[in-house]
Amino acid sequence: MWRWRSEFDSRLPLMGVKMDFEKELVSADYFIIPKNSGLEKCRNIAKTYSINKNIEVRGEDVPLIVSRFIKEGKRAIGITGEDLFKEFLIETRDPPIMLAKRIPWEDERCIFGKPALCLLGPKGKTLSDLPKELKIGINSKYKELSKRECINLLENKGYKVEKIYASGSTEELFVNGIVDLIVDIVYSGKSAEKANLAVYDKIFESDIVIICEKEKPKIEEKKITDKRFTLNDLYNKIKIRISSTNKYSYTLKLVNNPQLLKRKLVEEAAEVITAKDRENLIWECSDLIYFLFVIMAQEGVTISDVEKENQRRNKE
């Protein structure tokens, strides 16, 4: 199996989990649950909770509906696949929801023990056997997740990728010679086997997640967040996170995994270059600065050091 990384870093950390989650469940008026046949486990779990009203929607729409209800002042929680929630977080800025509880997806019928978003290609070959110009069929439910965790990495390796999005018929795109590779969820692996496809890499392994309203900051925290948040504030916050012992800190995870940090910096630089508009460029620049500051803080390089270097260059 072809691999480009030593570990999966896409897991959603349980950051800011509400300690009174059970109270959140009891007080909820609406439980948004998926009606997809593949997410029956979510519906079975939902039956174990006593919520006033269950509303069934597509699994990929659960985070959106919960968000809308919360913005309208309604008390709602939701349950869906972690992959679908991750996709929503990538494409949504400042969502009002958070991961409240992760429930392991355990199914012996799954070839990986749980659903996994994978890159698949022709059986008996590897990526190195394929041309540098690739047509990749992507399940449209995972457009952003595929881009960040797979397509960008391929492009960084010199591949020219044409992305073709489909609503759940990716194997057919391959069988009919329309694409060279596909990105889709692998469960039992039977449909992939039938299409003569093999897994080239796992992109994201999915558990079941319960989502709820994001915890509101305390009054003291709100005073801090209400100021014009400067780059110096960001740098100082990163320094604090680096010296913390919070095992759920993503910043600390980056520091403890230099290869992951370097890879994320390269990925975000690529995102800046390919930004489709001004708003997206601002967003991607902010991401890039964060990862750059993590490296700087780790090595003891301050913003003042960079300013002094610029002053030196200016004098020249």
Give a written overview of the molecule.
- This protein is an alpha/beta fold.
- The protein folds into 3 domains: about 20-105 and about 205-215, D-Maltodextrin-Binding Protein, domain 2; about 115-205, D-Maltodextrin-Binding Protein, domain 2 (3-Layer(aba) Sandwich); about 220-310, Helix Hairpins (Orthogonal Bundle), CATH 1.10.287.1080.
- About 45% of the residues lie in helices and about 20% in strands.
- The strands form 2 sheets. A 5-stranded mixed sheet has the order 2-1-3-10-4, with helices on both faces. The chain has a 5-stranded mixed sheet with strand order 7-6-8-5-9.
- α2 (about 40-45) links the parallel β1 and β2.
- α5 crosses α11 and α11 (about 260-275) runs antiparallel to α12.
How are the SSEs placed, and which strands pair?
Elements: H1 21-27, E1 30-34, H2 40-46, E2 53-57, H3 62-71, E3 76-81, H4 82-91, E4 97-103, E5 116-122, E6 133-139, H5 143-156, E7 160-166, H6 170-175, E8 181-186, H7 190-194, E9 197-205, E10 208-213, H8 219-225, H9 231-242, H10 250-256, H11 258-273, H12 278-299, H13 303-315
Parallel strand pairs: 1-2, 1-3, 6-7, 6-8
Antiparallel strand pairs: 3-10, 4-10, 5-8, 5-9
Helix pairs in contact: 5-11, 9-12, 11-12
